[in-house]
């Protein structure tokens, strides 16, 4: 895996972790505010939805790079190593196509929502912000998966060290 993609995926994962921590802190403060003074943080549900979606999209590239996704190998565990590697390559290719499609449609959705000037219900934040924030993580995941597909098909390591 090219070192710059490894570093970029690591930076995305760290940003995703920061988004998750910020979301957890905001949720905690909102719950405490509701319990102690009877007033939660306004728009906390909207912010939580955005924060967790951002966290997932930003952590996906590192999860893919690390081969941390769940693999069900019940039917393939008795096949040859070459067959397993080829099936893994096909699975990775399918993932790359799916995540690439999601990145494309998320970008198209951002443009459409921006044009419609759609905003969130409580805070009135522009909805396109959410779409734009998700697309880079999805696109990077697709690029990493495509490289892994090629490497697996060639019999090379597809993970962080390879």
Order of helices and strands: HHHH
Radius of gyration: 19 Å
Residue share in helix: over 70%
In quaternary terms, these chains amount to single chain
Low-confidence residue ranges = none
| Helical stretch tally | 4
Q: Shape, please?
A: elongated
Q: Specify the biggest β-sheet.
A: none
Terminal-residue CA separation = 6 Å
Strand runs, count = 0
Helix-strand category: mainly alpha
| Beta-strand residue percentage | under 5%
**pLDDT averaged residue by residue:** 92
Structural overview:
The chain starts with a helix and ends in an 8-residue tail after the last helix. It is built from 4 helices and no strands. 25% of the residues are buried. Helices cover 73% and strands 0% of the residues. Helix 1 packs antiparallel against helix 2 (44-65), helix 2 (44-65) runs parallel beside helix 4 and helix 3 (81-116) packs antiparallel against helix 4. With 162 residues, it is mostly helical. The longest helix has 36 residues, at 81-116. The radius of gyration is 19 Å and the shape is elongated. The mean pLDDT is 92.
